Amino acid sequence: MTKYIGILTAGGDSPGLNAALRGVGKAATSYFGMQVIGFKDGFRGMMENRIIRLDGSALSGILTIGGTVLGTSRDKPHRMPVGGKLLDMTDVIVDNYERHHLDVLVCMGGGGTHKNAYRLMQKGLNVITLPKTIDNDVAKTDVTFGFDTALGIATGAIDRLHSTAHSHHRIIVVEIMGHNAGWLALGAGLSGGADVILIPEIPYDIENVAEAIRLRSRAGKNFSIVAIAEGALSQADAKTIRAMEEKVDKAKDKAAKKKAKAKVKELKSLHKGNTLRVANQLEELTGLESRVTILGHLQRGGAPSAADRLLATRLGTACADFINEGVYGVMVAARGEGVEPVPIEDVVGKRKVVPLDHPWVKSARLIGANLGD
Ligand code: F6P
After folding, report:
1. Which of 135, 137, 148, 308 is catalytic?
2. Is the pLDDT assigned to residue 58 strictly greater than 90?
């Protein structure tokens, strides 16, 4: 019997999404003889029943294109902005799954998408997910697609910043994405030869960073590159936020939990602009002029790297293979050279952060990069 597949891409876009859509779509239609439709703009488009047919012509010529031809959004099925209100639209999404007689819904996304996919699974839908995000923070997969491309972009930016920092004898503080994980900043910092690398997993002491820069100056190196993750925290801020998060965990009733959660949110929003603060502090503490570069969404744009195209194609085609075998409720994880189906419930609510004993951390220390601690 012909199988019917629905696909959506959700959360922040990521290079390699089109390669993954092509991988699932081509294998499913040409090899296994299945029918594939795509929902536009993530869970919102599925709720609004906005579809396109993913057949030969729609899948052709998209391998090398960045972004997602389906469009994406951060809307969640159970808290969807509709008519100025946040409504639970899960049942409408389930109805649309049934309307198209789908056998399975493929969701490509990061941590948030996995939570939403799991909720739909609990409503009885067959779901398969693919791990994508430039942050590389999805649990239970070796790597996510999008990461390698973003790593290349951030590394290239650090390379370019070196010559200008060197010429002007400045500190350049470069902010790198990654949400609350340090994979991108650490990877790009190491491969771009940053002098200081600050990541969320290792809260920093600004005086310690300043001293490392002063030492470089005394050794005749009057410039420094500081690669800072957008989620990097000072030791003091990390302590305050951790204490408040413990309050959330220990809260006895709903109201106390809500209050503590709101406080954590407020503390985290105060953290916005931290990179500028770090640059100002370093200028004051070292006497060296400093500048800030925020790489932002540049890191998500443009064509996927060859490694991301390969990874997305490997995961996408394996996904079609699993569907053919009737394997549902799993994330198609990258494992070594191959793939592994991991139950979605094992992925949900977990974030893969940089372990303190990770080889990249060790290498950074061994080459003398300052990690702020
Ligand atoms: O998850 C990918 C990511 O690019 C993060 O690195 C970043 O924190 C976030 O998305 C930015 O989100 P938005 O594109 O919604 O501003």
Report:
1. 135
2. yes
pTM of the model: 0.96
Atom of ligand 1 nearest to the CA of 11: 1
Q: How far is the CA of 29 from the centre of ligand 1 (A)?
A: 32
Q: Tell me whether strands 80-82 and 104-109 are parallel, antiparallel or unpaired.
A: unpaired
Residues in the chain: 373
Start-to-end CA distance of the chain, whole Å, equals: 60
Whether 93 has a pLDDT exceeding 90, the answer reads yes
Nearest-atom number in ligand 1 for the CA of 184 is 6
Q: For this structure, is 148 an active site residue?
A: no
Q: Measured from the CB, is residue 179 less than 6 Å from ligand 1? A: yes
| Nearest Cα residue to 65 out of 25, 143, 109, 13 | 13
Domains and CATH numbers, the chain: 4-145+304-336 (3.40.50.450), 150-233+271-300+355-366 (3.40.50.460)
pLDDT tens profile 253-281: 889 888 888 988 888 888 888 999 999 99
